[in-house]
Amino acid sequence: MTTIPTMAILTIFVLSVFVGFEVVSKVSTTLHTPLMSGANAIHGIILIGAIIVANGATSTLETTLSILAVVLATINMVGGFVVTDRMLEMFKGKGGKK
Prior knowledge:
Layout: H1 6-25, H2 32-55, H3 60-90
Helix pairs in contact: 2-3
Keywords: Cell inner membrane, Cell membrane, Membrane, NAD, NADP, Translocase, Transmembrane, Transmembrane helix
Membrane topology: Multi-pass membrane protein
Pfam family, one: PNTB_4TM
């Protein structure tokens, strides 16, 4: 198995941040709720990936960073579901059932 240099990983990360920001900033406001639902599905996949990486960690640094990744991915996923739930509450009527 070949290892990827750290600089290459950081470059890919920075480029993906810029691409993600540009894509999300161009979405109209009416499409934000479906975008959030799709993002929640992606967050679940990211959480599974973080767990797999944590399982294969060999050094203390890898273990620490992978556990941090699992914690942050969990917070991100749960927060996404909470925000989506609050957004959907806005569409319910005032006298509607819960």
